[in-house]
Design goal:
heterodimer; A: about 280 residues; globular; B: alpha/beta; Coagulation Factor XIII, Chain A, domain 1
Chain lengths: ~280, ~400
Amino acid sequence: MSAAEAQTVPPSHLRFRRPFRPIEALRQLYHARELIRTLAERELRVRYKQAILGLAWAFITPLALTLVFSVFIRRLAAIDTGDAPYQVFAYLGLLPWTFFSTSVSVGGQSLVQNIPLLNRVYCPREVFPLASVMVAGFDMLVALVPFGALLIIYGFVPKVTSYWVPVLLVVQVIFSLAVALLVSAIVVYLRDLRHALPILLQLGLFATPVAYGLDVVPVSLQPLYVMLNPLGAVIDGYRRVVLYGLPPDWGLVLPAAVSALLMLAVGYYLFKRMETGFADVA
Amino acid sequence: MPEGVVRTEHLWKRFRADRRRMLLRDELQRVGARLRGRGGRGWRWALRDVNVMAQPGEAIGLIGSNGSGKTTLLKILSRVMYPYAGTAVAGGRVGALLEVRAGIHPDLTGRENVFVTGSLLGLRRKEVAQRFDEIVSFAELEDAIDRQVKFFSSGMQMRLGFAVAAFLEPDVLLVDEALAVGDATFQQKCLDRMRVVLSQGTTLFFVSHDFAAVEATCERGIWLRQGEIEADGPIRDILGAYRQSIEEAAEADYRVEGLVRLLKAEASGVGGGPRTQEAFEIRTVVESSEPRAGRIFLGISEGPAMPIFVLRRDVQLNGETAVRCSIPRLPLPRGRYYVWAGIYDAPGRELLPWHPITHFDVVGPDLDAAPPATARLAPIHVDATWDVSSL
C-alpha cells in the first residue's frame, strides 16, 4: 500500500466493530421501557379510536377465517377434531396465528415506518418491533372475548389442563419476537420485501396447523417440523390442553421452545449487527 | 469514560456516493454489475481520521462548509450513527438537538416526548416531572404540550427539542444548526441557556453558521474541511482562519462579467504598512467602453460578504479611469481584510457586481477581547485613553 493510499482509507485494524454485549443491550432496553409502553399505548389508541368498529378489528380477522375454514377447508379434507367443535378448534389455532402474523407484519414494518427517527434520535432500535408485538398481544386479549362466546354457543367447557397455557404462550411470544426483529431489520435494507410480506404470511398460514391438526405431519417428522415452525407445537399444545384435557406433548414443545429461543438469540444478534447501519440508509 | 468527556480516535465514516433506494431489485442489479466487473466503488468519506478530545465544561464550535462532516460527527457522538473505523465515546448523558423535527416520535404528544426522552436518558419519572414545568415554560408551549408533536410548527418543534435536550441535565450537549429556525428572541434564549448549562460543567458541541453566536458561546473551535480537521484551537483564531479561506476561495472563484471591467486593484499603506491608524489607500483602474455615469462602492470585510464599512463615490467613466480612495487613519486592528468593489448606474443596475478584489494585512495592535460569552460585531480599532485613579 502506498503512502497516498494509506491516507485515503483507514487501516484495517481500526475498523469499527460494535461488540455484541447482550447484558448492556438489555440494560439499555430497560431504560427504553417507557418508550416501548408509550409507543404501544399510542398505537392502540390510534387504532381503536379511528376505526369505526374499534376493538372489533382484533377479532374480525380470526372470526372471518374461522368461517372460511369451516365452510371450505372442512369440506375438502376430513379433519379430526376429536369431540371439540371444528369452529372452536380452528379459532383456537387462529388466536396464536393472528398474534404471530400481526407481530410480523406490523413489527416487520415498524422500523421502515419510523425511518425519519432512525437518523436523528438515539434509542435502542428494537423498541419499535417490541412495541408492535405488545400491540399484537393486546389484540389477542381482545380476540379472547369471541372465543368465550364460541365456547358458550357450542356449549364446550375448556379442560382443567388449560393451566399449561402460559408455558405455551411464552414459546409463542419468543418465536414471534424473533421473526419480527429479524424481518424489521432486513426490511430496512431491502424495502421492497415488505410487499412480499403479506404473501409469505398467507403461505405461512397454510404451512402451519391452523385449519387442520398437527397430525397431517408424519409423526417421525413432527419434531423436525416444530423446530422449523415452533408455532406448530404451540397450536397443537393449546388444543391438547384446552380441548382434549391432555398435557402438552413435551417431545414437541421442548424442541420448539429450544428452537424458538435459539431463533430469538440469533435474531437479536443479527438485529444488533444490522442496527449499526440503520441510520446510514435511513 | 468520565461524564462529560468526549473523545474520538481515528474516526472514519463513509456513505454511499449514490443515493440508494434500498430495494432488493437494485441490490441484485448491483451484484450483477459487480460480477461483470463494472462495480463502482461509490463511497464518499464523510469523516477522515478525526481525533477530538474534549473535557467536561468545554464549549466547542464546529465550523466548516456544508458537507464537511459536522453533522455526521454529531450523529456519531449521539450514537445515532456508528463509525466505519475508529472509536467515538461521549461520557454520561448525551442531549442532542440534531434536526429541527426534534423529539422522539411525532405521533406522541409533547408531554409524552418529554417523559420518554427523559427515561431514555436514564432519568426517573419523578426527576423528569420536577423539570417538566421548566421545560414547558422555556419552550413557551403551555397551550400545545398535550398536542401531538407532528402538529407543531417547525419553530415549536425546535423549541421543544432544545428545551428537552438542555434541561434534562445532559453531560454532553450537541446542538446542530437547528436553532436557526427559532426567532431572534428565542435564539438568544437558547444561547443564554447554553451558557448556563456550560457553567454547570456540561460539554457543548455547537454547529452553526452564525459566527457571532459561535464566538459568543464557544471558547474552542474545530474547523472541518471535507471530513478532516483543518484546524483546532481558540475559537477566534479558527473563525479567522475559516473566514480567510472562504474569502480566498471567493476571490479565486470570481470571474466577474460586467459592463465595465476592473483592470487593477491594489490596497496598501502610504509609506509602509498598512498600519493601524495610519494612511491607507485603495487604487483601482476601471475600464468602460463608452462614457457612463456610475457609482463605485468599496467595502472592507473580515468575513465573507458582510463588510465592516463601505465607502462610495459617484464617478464619470470613460475609457480607462483611475479611482483612488484614501483613508487617512485606517481604523482596523491587526489582521487580514478583504476589499470588495461594485459599480452601479443611477437606477441601481449593476455595471460591475459586488465582489472581492484584493486583500491586505494590517500591522498594529490586537483587538481587545470581549468579556466571556459576548461577541463583538466587527473589528474596529478605536483610539482611547484611560484614566484610572483611586479616590
